[in-house]
Design a protein that fits this description.
Elements: H1 9-17, E1 25-27, E2 44-47, H2 53-68, H3 73-86, E3 94-97
Length: 111
């Protein structure tokens, strides 16, 4: 039997704080950015709406193939989006949130 709980941004941030080598957080599920009101300490890729399984897989395949090929997270994000677009899927559901910097607390939607 499964039990689901909502993971809040307040709960997520301490989990990420101890991850010194984390370069990007991917939340590849429907509405995964719901509740994230501010940028975290690392780039976050997530969904702002529902996404069907085929689109999520297309994004993940493009993203992780690019990571495996040595691309940085920003390039991998672009490859994931290209993978979705090449299959005629709506890539606008996938969003890149830039990490919080010491000088700027504003998130951007693309790398």
């Amino acid at each position: 039997k499964f039990s689901f709980r909502t993971l809040t941004c307040a709960a997520l941030e301490p989990l990420l704080a101890g991850q010194r080598h984390l370069r990007c957080l991917v939340l590849n599920a429907c509405n995964s950015l719901t509740g994230i009101q501010e940028p975290l300490g690392v780039p976050v890729v997530g969904m702002i709406d529902t996404i069907d399984d085929d689109a999520a897989v297309a994004f993940a395949k493009g993203f992780y193939d690019a990571i495996a090929a040595g691309q940085p997270p920003e390039g991998a994000f672009k490859q994931g989006v290209i993978s979705m677009k090449s299959k005629g899927m709506d890539e606008h559901v996938v969003v890149w949130l830039s990490p919080r910097s010491q000088d700027d607390d504003v998130a951007t939607a693309s790398p």
